Amino acid sequence: MSKITTFLLASFLIFQATTLTATEGMWLPLLLESLNEEEMQAMGMKLSAEDIYSVNKGSLKDAIVHFGGFCTSEVISPNGLLLTNHHCGYRQIQSHTTLKNNYLKDGFWAKTKKDELANPGLFAKFIVRIEDISSKVLNDLSDDLSEKERQSQIDKNIEALKASVKLEKFEEITIRPFFKGNQYFMFITVTYNDVRLVGTPPESIGKFGADTDNWMWPRHTGDFALFRIYADKDNNPAEYAEDNVPYTPKHYLPISVDGVEQDDFTMVFGFPGRTDQYLPSPAVEQIVDVLNPAKIAIRDKALKILDAEMRADPQVKIQYASKFASIANYWKKWIGESQGLKVSDGVGRKKKFEAEFSDLIGQSTKSAKKYGNILPQFNKLYKEIEPYALKRDYYNEVAGRNVELLAIVNYLNRLKTNFEESGEEGYNSYLGRLKPFLKNKYKDYNKDIDKKVFASLVEMYDENAGLGPHASAIKKKYGTYDLLAGGMYGMSTIADGDQMMALLEKDPKEVIDRISEDPAFKFGAAMRKHYNDNVSKQYNDIKSQIDNLQRNYMAALIEVFPKRRFFPDANGTMRVSYGQVSGYEPKDALQYLPVTYLKGVMQKYVPGDYEFDLPKKLVDLYEKKDYGDYGVDGKMPVCFLGSNHTTGGNSGSPAIDANGNLIGLNFDRVWEGTMSDINYDKSICRNIMVDIRYVLFIIDKFGDSKHLVDEMKLVHPKKGK
Ligand code: ARG
Ligand code: GLU
């Protein structure tokens, strides 16, 4: 056990008496027993920490699966049936969709296992065990090491540790820093690569309300999809093969059909991606005042163009569906985050906290000497980094993401560098990965649309970040940004998917020569070089100083606030959050109840609408109140709210009741509370889950797929069954 863990433990004993309903925090499953078990049980949980995470017996964690590395999913049958969100499986669903077999529009239900659809590249990762390895990784680090020397000693320690760990066949190691590098944990994982699509409702259910309702309450989306893990005959991971068999799990979640009530205990178990809970006030100020507004404005422009094109052409709607949803998702989140931080005075709260911190360190000369410089340094460094951070966001948004031609140029630039630095061997090894990636990208790329995005966003980039002399000279030759775009997309091979893929089949030298002469490549490479020399280098220098300072700040916080229980920021590793079913007050005098019903879906129904249309069959089931065993008092529950601390990556996470049964599927947060990534506020931060009974109702009554429900284990804990 590391020093910090021992420390946290000691602090917790003093702390626990004072807070019994704290819901802030994403906790490491292996530390629940020492840090959280008592509180969880006081909140109503009937399980022990060992039931949730155990290395000796099957436990809840054996049913929790990292889905493709970006979402969470859970095993819900003895035959490897996997539940996740519709929006997590979106790309896969889209990839099987054509205008003829329109699974996005009509849904898809495999009637037999033979009908389940393979998804190359998609994986399901299990956690075998987690270990605190801080003392080994942070061994032999004296205070006088430079940052570089420190990191190289850490790398050495990690290599030595990796070499000493005994792995079973198929096991892999991941080592990750926690608490900004003050602690390290090791994760032993096993990954399955044959994951097939089993079922999905139509978008009009799985994405009901689309972007208008995204991040909002009250919510009425049946955001789920079903997959299945396949294994070889020995239940081991295997690449896709027709004769692979359904995976037999160590544990799968039983499903409670008894429903939820206000204040019921809930736990969300999954893989939250990233939070920044310990940023200093100048960083938060910069996000609210400078960085979020810039990113929002860029995406605003891109989205308006894509939206118009998608509404005009059903083929484009399919082609751009997944891309549009992901651009719109964070655009809207940033708007909510900024508003939330303003309304809750996130910056003021941080400043108050920092004043408290300064007071405490001021009380001891030793601490003052050790930590007194941290906050002033933060102020100085955040001021210095601001112009670079802003331009960096511009570059990443414009050339790294929203203008696809420029993003592709960046990949080709890397191909060229590989060729120049490590000859044909380096070229071929990168090309092997690049080809399937580009093929996929071009499949959903439309030259005419991208050209419009280019003209609009490159102009914006030039005004705010500056193209630099070379790219500017190219632009000047053409005249306007529109003419520049016309020239690029008219003459560039890279702008044409078929031509570019054909070119990649030629010999390396020819490919590199042709790419280098390509007008879009010349423009993109000039823009990139200017960015690298004038922004990226400076940004990275300052950022590494900030990171080191942040590590010291974290250590200082833990030392200076011995009564606080700290949780490490999300970093894509397995965590447990817990809370209760609970509504909130979004505005003065407005109260939100925690459960929505099918009635509310019908109230939002707009026939033929882009976002609020419904399948006739659902309307019929509603009119007949044909809810099978899933309704309650003639009503069909749809979504519910909880006070579990979650973030992106928690999509698809199970909502689990006091007894370890599945009651819902996490898929979103409320808008007023999206600032929880930076500044959690227990009064308004809520996560949104689909009620599991709605999932079962849609599979059984709407999808006519009772055979899937029959695979699951339905229980009635409230009725004692
Ligand atoms: N906001 C949810 C999350 O962050 C759902 C996103 C998918 N839906 C959408 N309309 N873009 O992933
Ligand atoms: N929809 C998010 C996801 O894909 C979860 C919502 C959130 O950010 O909390 O992970």
Notes on the structure:
The chain is built from 26 helices and 21 strands. It is of the alpha+beta class and 721 residues long. It folds into two domains: 423 residues, Thrombin, subunit H; 273 residues, no CATH class. The strands form four sheets. Strands 1, 2, 3, 4, 5, 6, 7, 8, 9 and 10 form a ten-stranded antiparallel sheet that branches. A seven-stranded antiparallel sheet has the order 13-12-18-19-20-17-16. The longest helix is centred in the last third of the chain and has 42 residues. The two termini are 40 Å apart. The N terminus is likely disordered. The structure holds arginine (ARG) and glutamic acid.
Count of all domains: 2
Identify the CATH class of the largest domain: Mainly Beta
Helical content, roughly? 40-55%
Structural class, from helix and strand content?
Answer: alpha+beta
Q: Report the end-to-end length measured between terminal Cα atoms.
A: 40 Å
What is the molecular shape? Answer: globular
Number of strands: 21
Sheet-strand content, in percent, reads 5-15%
Radius of gyration: 26 Å
Profile the largest sheet: 10 strands, antiparallel
Quick check: average pLDDT? 95
Q: Which ligands, by name, code or SMILES, are bound? A: arginine, glutamic acid
What is the tally of helical segments?
Answer: 26
**Which runs of at least 5 residues are low in confidence (pLDDT < 50)?**
1-21
